[in-house]
Specification:
Blueprint lengths: L5 H26 L5 H8 E4 L2 E9 L2 E4 L25 H8 L7 H9 L17 E5 L14 E5 H10 L27
Antiparallel strand pairs: 1-2, 2-3, 4-5
Protein name: HNH endonuclease
Keywords: Endonuclease, Hydrolase, Nuclease
GO molecular function, one term: zinc ion binding
Length: 192
């Protein structure tokens, strides 16, 4: 199956949609063996906006419709340039690819591009698999704002080191269950 061309992908999505339509109609006929095709169509398929034959259920004057595969936005895969490898040391190239990763949120991608793939705290490039955290340059507890100009992307260990040194943790008590002691042995108390 060739999936490099958008038109080919659209064709496959259309075939899947048609198959689902036939299967749904067969299900509806089995569910209502004594009803006509017209009755079944009126019950399950509706006109929503400009689209006819939408498989949908009406709940409180709103329709909940089945997602159509041909409506899936087709995202082209960006090929790796030449003989590039994550192990070749070209961190600029690989950090720029991370910004296009589907799991990278917009804020992280914007900060990665602005910082050219480098952590400002340690100066090393971000690599695929690195744990990255968004940091406020001037902490909110010290009057900083949640704006892009006050944000930077750091490695997790760099963020921990910076947060410990800038005094933004003063007065904050961690109630994370991972750092609390288990109460299995100590019957009289759960946490020190």
């Amino acid at each position: 199956m060739e999936t490099t061309k958008a038109s080919t992908q659209y064709t496959y999505f259309s075939k899947i949609h048609k198959l689902i339509y036939y299967r749904l109609f067969r299900w509806a006929k089995r569910s209502h063996p004594n009803k006509t095709d017209k009755w079944i169509a009126n019950k399950y398929w509706h006109t929503i906006g400009e689209n006819n034959w939408e498989f949908a259920v009406k709940i409180d004057d709103n329709f909940i419709k089945l997602y159509k595969h041909p409506e899936t936005p087709i995202v082209r895969h960006v090929k790796v340039k030449g003989n590039a490898s994550p192990f070749d040391g070209n961190w600029v190239y690989w950090s720029s690819r991370i910004t296009n990763h589907p799991e990278a949120n917009k804020r992280v991608a914007t900060l990665l591009k602005r910082q050219k793939g480098k952590c400002p705290e340690c100066g090393h490039y971000f690599r695929d698999g690195d744990v990255m955290e968004v940091d406020h340059i001037l902490p909110i507890s010290k009057g900083g704002k949640d704006e892009y100009k006050n944000l930077q992307l750091l490695h997790r260990h760099c963020h921990d080191r910076k947060t410990a040194s800038d005094g933004s943790l003063v007065g904050i008590h961690d109630k994370n269950h991972i750092i609390e002691e288990p109460y299995e042995v100590k019957v009289s108390r759960t946490v020190l």
